């Protein structure tokens, strides 16, 4: 649904808002206003999944209709509303250049990818509680595509999953309920907690976003609820790729209670319906605790504990129940922190716990060898050391990977990161990952150099 197609959208007039649905009406009909409104009766017969279906053309047109109609129903004149939205609006430009090199045993050619992501974000001023956001991304190659971008057929090269494209990354309307919370509908960024179960995969040049209806509430002090109904996941593989999207009726919820400033507990649930790959459909429920224990002015202990249970859901052909366990303790003594962690994704008779909508690059090593959990599950025991010297942030990881069941020793990995913020507009980052295989996958070395400019 992310690629440009001939279909555009019908505005659906109901309860003071417009929504969009794929139809045979073309852009000429929309421009001339010769498209019919659906009645309230007809609107109620349309399933939620068919609402707010976005292509780049539809996203911009529909967002505009949403905002304009909301303003009109708020009782303000059209011209005053538009003027206020523009005058109080904002525009942001982010440019991110990256060179990525991959050397992987078993693949004849190394990958060398020189890519530039350009992102323009437009945000309207707030009128009667409503705010509109449209964000457009472009990924271009500087030089030849001497790598497998998952679309170009260069299977003799190592993978760098950054296809070139132009698309609408975000296009949504939000409404603020004062201090009580916000509601948003459209294509949007959704990151839950540490992004272990739901996130935007922000490391890749093409971000993962969600076509969703989301509500975030603060019903009481220190208590938040975040629920999303997701009908399409726009994945990192670009708008035209064979793995570009997941469609389905998915639900994601997390509720968090904070005990003062240093402790919180969250309960979460994810009902994932992935029609393209039914085996990834799953129901997951769990708890997470975050704590910070201040021992002295210069020393503190951070604790992160999480547990979850997962089973098959909807049309999954699998039959399983698998658990997830995570514990991390971080000793923080300025300017150094040392973390020890252990993460387990269980296997149930060859079917493993899975997190297909997570920001997977963030977990189990930057070499990305475990984006799909092996059938035997995985146990990741790691140490992380971080410090800051002369304004440069250094991070070192060591991971030891083993199977949760079956006794396999998968391998180990060393990761290095050096990041420097030059000023408010410019930053530079170097990252390196070296995976040493034993019983799983192959030896892999990856290196990145990234320059970012924000205005």
Q: Can you characterise this structure?
A:
The structure is a single chain. Among the domains are: 90-179, no CATH class; 379-454. The strands form 2 sheets. The chain has an 18-stranded antiparallel β-barrel. A hairpin with a 6-residue loop joins strand 1 (90-104) and strand 2. The chain is 9% helix and 49% strand. Mean pLDDT is 87; it is low at 1-61. The chain is mainly β.
The low-confidence runs, each spanning 5 or more residues with pLDDT under 50, are 1-61
Distance between the termini: 30 Å
State Rg. Answer: 23 Å
Helix-residue proportion:
under 10%
Treating each run of at least 4 consecutive H or I residues as one helix, how many helices? 4
Tell me the overall shape.
Answer: globular
How much of the polypeptide forms β-strand, as a percent range?
Answer: over 45%
Tell me the series of helices and strands, N- to C-terminal.
HHHHEEEEEEEEEEEEEEEEEEEE
| Main pleated-sheet profile | 18 strands, antiparallel, barrel
Given helix and strand content, the structural type is: mainly beta
Strands, count: 20
Chain-averaged pLDDT? 87
Question: Topology, pairings included?
Answer:
Elements: H1 27-32, H2 40-44, H3 56-73, H4 78-87, E1 90-104, E2 111-123, E3 130-141, E4 165-176, E5 181-188, E6 209-220, E7 223-234, E8 245-259, E9 263-272, E10 282-296, E11 299-312, E12 321-333, E13 336-345, E14 347-348, E15 351-352, E16 378-389, E17 392-402, E18 409-421, E19 426-437, E20 444-454
Antiparallel strand pairs: 1-2, 1-20, 2-3, 3-4, 4-5, 5-6, 6-7, 7-8, 8-9, 9-10, 10-11, 11-12, 12-13, 13-16, 14-15, 16-17, 17-18, 18-19, 19-20
